[in-house]
Amino acid sequence: MADQDRRTLLAGALLGAGVAASVVDLAVFHLLLHWHHFYDLSTTGVALASDGLFHAFDWFTTVGSLFLLADLRRRGTVAWGRWTGGLLAGLGAFQLFDGVVLHKVLRIHQIRYDVDLLVYDATWIGTAVLALAAGLLLLRRARPARPRR
Amino acid sequence: MTPHHGATGWDLFEGTVLVLLLLGAAGYATGLWAARHRGPWPPHRTVLWHAGLLCAAAALAGPLAEAARTGFTAHMAGHLLLGMAAPLLLVLAAPVTLALRALPAARARTVSRLLRTPPVRALTHPVVAGLLNAGGLWLLYTTGLYGRMHESVGVHAAVHAHVLLAGYVFTAAVVGVDPDPHRGSFPLRAAVLVGFLAAHSALAKHLYGHPPEGVGTSDARVGAQLMYYGGDVVDVALIVALFAQWYVSGRPRTRVVRSTA
Questions:
Q1: Where are the domains of chain A?
Q2: Which of B198, B225, B232 sits opposite A38 (nearest CB)?
Q3: Which of B78, B134, B216, B255 has its CA 20 to 30 A from that of B164?
């Protein structure tokens, strides 16, 4: 069913993006490593508002995508390959967006402060591209054969 | 910032709060008694109601409330309890549903007519409720209101009543389980919730750099982070409640959806 497949991809991709934005960012970079700052004192009002909106969306998509997955499961079997592909692609796409647009173009915040950023940025963007590529590859391989129902 | 308070005013405030909260507990118990022949009432709702009253009590009276008059971090802990945790617990306890079950039919009809009147309808619209709740917070922390609240018992009482009531109306409009004749659509309630969450976390970060007058830097920073992460905990609970309702209402149509009343 095309609709079921579309929703499976969506559930995976939203969870990937949501986890990258909320859990990875919050747990790893803010609370564990203390690399990210809670608040740059230079942050402008616009940046503050967009940051708040982003933050709200993170949690909303993380929770919502899990309920979407639960809804898919009660309606039939879930194509886990497609879901995992969506998850990796969503995670990679978000990290890529975060690493290129937010860090480098808009310069909202950096990965770490008072260090040479090149290695950090290269690692960040490199892993993002890898995750995105792995996700897209998995999506190709797990493409539904023929609609069975 | 803290001139000598007349003790009597604050004692009167705490006493009034405790009487009101005890009345809330007694009212719920009376409702349960009056509706005892109307079929079983989910026990978790009774637990939620009393947990909500306890949160409000902790924020308004006793050691935390005392500390909140001089410390920003303690104030913020109280704010999270009174404006976010207590409303969520009280809303999920479905007090209006209980009242409708407990009251005689004619009185219950009056209550449900009241819920349909234009002022109630306007006030409980998700957008209005969200603006009242978030707007009140911005006013409190970015104007001189925060300082005045600690100097006058009257202002203190008015601000805290607003925080609890606006929190309740907002929570009811977004994830309420009581009958709501004009409940907003799922996308509208979701958008309002995301908007409120954004405003709350943006305000927390703003306060980190720009605390209310008279608040020390380190106290402000700890308090702002408490507001941000503590707010997240309740906000995620709100999001889960919203999606849980979506999940239940969207179950595949194999049987008739049970009324929650």
A1: 2-141
A2: B225
A3: B216
